[in-house]
Design goal:
Largest sheet: none
Structural class: mainly alpha
Number of helices: 7
Order of helices and strands: HHHHHHH
Number of strands: 0
Keywords: Signal
Shape: globular
Strand content: under 5%
Radius of gyration: 25 Å
Protein backbone atom coordinates (compact mmCIF):
# COMPACT_ATOMS: atom_id res chain seq x y z
CA UNK A 1 0.00 0.00 0.00
CA UNK A 2 2.85 2.35 0.79
CA UNK A 3 4.14 1.92 -2.77
CA UNK A 4 0.74 2.68 -4.29
CA UNK A 5 0.41 6.07 -2.59
CA UNK A 6 3.16 7.83 -4.64
CA UNK A 7 1.75 6.28 -7.80
CA UNK A 8 -1.77 7.43 -6.93
CA UNK A 9 -0.51 10.95 -6.17
CA UNK A 10 1.15 11.09 -9.55
CA UNK A 11 -2.22 10.51 -11.19
CA UNK A 12 -3.90 13.43 -9.41
CA UNK A 13 -4.33 16.65 -11.41
CA UNK A 14 -1.61 19.23 -10.91
CA UNK A 15 -2.40 22.50 -9.16
CA UNK A 16 -3.09 25.42 -11.51
CA UNK A 17 0.36 26.97 -10.96
CA UNK A 18 2.13 23.78 -11.89
CA UNK A 19 -0.10 23.24 -14.92
CA UNK A 20 0.67 26.67 -16.42
CA UNK A 21 2.52 26.78 -19.75
CA UNK A 22 6.24 26.37 -19.77
CA UNK A 23 8.30 29.56 -20.05
CA UNK A 24 9.38 28.45 -23.54
CA UNK A 25 5.85 28.90 -24.78
CA UNK A 26 5.79 32.50 -23.59
CA UNK A 27 9.14 33.11 -25.26
CA UNK A 28 7.80 31.58 -28.45
CA UNK A 29 4.86 34.00 -28.38
CA UNK A 30 7.19 36.91 -27.71
CA UNK A 31 9.49 35.66 -30.43
CA UNK A 32 6.60 35.40 -32.90
CA UNK A 33 5.55 38.97 -32.10
CA UNK A 34 9.13 40.22 -32.45
CA UNK A 35 9.57 38.42 -35.80
CA UNK A 36 6.31 39.82 -37.12
CA UNK A 37 7.29 43.33 -36.03
CA UNK A 38 10.72 42.89 -37.67
CA UNK A 39 9.09 41.90 -40.95
CA UNK A 40 6.57 44.74 -40.80
CA UNK A 41 9.34 47.24 -40.02
CA UNK A 42 11.34 46.02 -43.03
CA UNK A 43 8.17 46.18 -45.12
CA UNK A 44 7.43 49.76 -44.04
CA UNK A 45 8.25 51.40 -47.37
CA UNK A 46 7.26 54.73 -48.83
CA UNK A 47 5.21 53.14 -51.59
CA UNK A 48 4.44 56.56 -53.08
CA UNK A 49 8.07 57.06 -54.05
CA UNK A 50 8.79 53.52 -55.29
CA UNK A 51 7.48 51.56 -58.23
CA UNK A 52 5.35 48.52 -57.52
CA UNK A 53 8.21 46.38 -58.89
CA UNK A 54 10.66 47.96 -56.43
CA UNK A 55 8.25 47.40 -53.53
CA UNK A 56 7.72 43.77 -54.53
CA UNK A 57 11.47 43.16 -54.80
CA UNK A 58 12.19 44.63 -51.37
CA UNK A 59 9.39 42.58 -49.84
CA UNK A 60 10.55 39.36 -51.55
CA UNK A 61 13.95 39.76 -49.91
CA UNK A 62 12.69 40.11 -46.35
CA UNK A 63 13.77 36.91 -44.59
CA UNK A 64 11.15 34.84 -42.80
CA UNK A 65 13.22 34.21 -39.72
CA UNK A 66 11.00 32.50 -37.18
CA UNK A 67 7.73 34.14 -38.17
CA UNK A 68 4.69 31.96 -37.52
CA UNK A 69 3.32 29.94 -40.45
CA UNK A 70 -0.05 31.69 -40.60
CA UNK A 71 1.53 35.13 -40.65
CA UNK A 72 4.14 34.14 -43.23
CA UNK A 73 1.54 32.63 -45.56
CA UNK A 74 -0.57 35.79 -45.34
CA UNK A 75 2.52 37.94 -45.88
CA UNK A 76 3.54 35.92 -48.94
CA UNK A 77 0.04 36.44 -50.38
CA UNK A 78 0.58 40.16 -49.82
CA UNK A 79 3.95 40.02 -51.60
CA UNK A 80 2.25 38.18 -54.48
CA UNK A 81 -0.38 40.95 -54.68
CA UNK A 82 2.43 43.51 -55.09
CA UNK A 83 3.99 41.33 -57.81
CA UNK A 84 0.60 41.25 -59.56
CA UNK A 85 0.38 45.05 -59.39
CA UNK A 86 3.89 45.39 -60.81
CA UNK A 87 3.00 43.07 -63.71
CA UNK A 88 -0.29 44.90 -64.35
CA UNK A 89 1.41 48.31 -64.35
CA UNK A 90 4.16 47.05 -66.65
CA UNK A 91 1.56 45.59 -68.99
CA UNK A 92 -0.42 48.84 -69.01
CA UNK A 93 2.74 50.81 -69.66
CA UNK A 94 3.75 48.53 -72.53
CA UNK A 95 0.33 48.68 -74.16
CA UNK A 96 0.15 52.44 -73.65
CA UNK A 97 3.46 52.93 -75.45
CA UNK A 98 2.05 51.59 -78.73
CA UNK A 99 1.18 54.09 -81.45
CA UNK A 100 -2.57 53.54 -81.92
CA UNK A 101 -3.05 56.94 -83.57
CA UNK A 102 -1.24 55.84 -86.73
CA UNK A 103 -3.22 52.64 -87.29
CA UNK A 104 -6.65 54.26 -87.05
CA UNK A 105 -7.69 51.95 -84.21
CA UNK A 106 -9.48 54.04 -81.60
CA UNK A 107 -10.13 51.01 -79.43
CA UNK A 108 -8.82 51.27 -75.89
CA UNK A 109 -9.81 47.69 -74.99
CA UNK A 110 -6.24 46.76 -74.03
CA UNK A 111 -5.90 49.88 -71.88
CA UNK A 112 -9.21 49.13 -70.17
CA UNK A 113 -8.13 45.56 -69.42
CA UNK A 114 -4.80 46.74 -68.08
CA UNK A 115 -6.52 49.39 -66.01
CA UNK A 116 -8.94 46.79 -64.64
CA UNK A 117 -5.95 44.54 -63.86
CA UNK A 118 -4.27 47.40 -62.01
CA UNK A 119 -7.43 48.10 -60.00
CA UNK A 120 -7.84 44.40 -59.21
CA UNK A 121 -4.22 44.13 -58.06
CA UNK A 122 -4.60 47.26 -55.90
CA UNK A 123 -7.70 45.74 -54.29
CA UNK A 124 -5.74 42.52 -53.65
CA UNK A 125 -3.00 44.53 -51.94
CA UNK A 126 -5.58 46.11 -49.64
CA UNK A 127 -7.27 42.83 -48.76
CA UNK A 128 -4.04 40.91 -48.23
CA UNK A 129 -2.66 43.69 -46.05
CA UNK A 130 -5.86 43.57 -43.99
CA UNK A 131 -5.24 39.85 -43.43
CA UNK A 132 -1.57 40.45 -42.52
CA UNK A 133 -2.55 43.09 -39.96
CA UNK A 134 -5.34 40.91 -38.56
CA UNK A 135 -2.93 38.04 -37.94
CA UNK A 136 -0.23 40.38 -36.61
CA UNK A 137 -2.75 41.75 -34.13
CA UNK A 138 -3.57 38.25 -32.95
CA UNK A 139 0.07 37.91 -31.93
CA UNK A 140 0.07 41.30 -30.25
CA UNK A 141 2.41 42.80 -32.86
CA UNK A 142 2.33 46.55 -33.34
CA UNK A 143 2.25 48.04 -36.81
CA UNK A 144 4.90 50.64 -37.58
CA UNK A 145 3.88 54.20 -38.41
CA UNK A 146 3.77 54.40 -42.22
CA UNK A 147 6.82 56.17 -43.70
CA UNK A 148 4.61 58.67 -45.53
CA UNK A 149 3.16 59.77 -42.18
CA UNK A 150 6.64 59.99 -40.64
CA UNK A 151 7.85 62.36 -43.35
CA UNK A 152 4.79 64.60 -42.95
CA UNK A 153 5.36 64.79 -39.18
CA UNK A 154 8.96 65.97 -39.54
Amino acid sequence: MRFLLPFALALLPLPAAAASPEPGIVVTGQQARAEIERILDADNLDTGSLSARDVAEVMENIPRGRAPDDFWQAYQAHVHAWEQLAAAEESASASGSGDDADNGDDSDDDDATDSADVRQAQAAIESTFDEVTRIAGRYGARLPVPRAQLSSIA
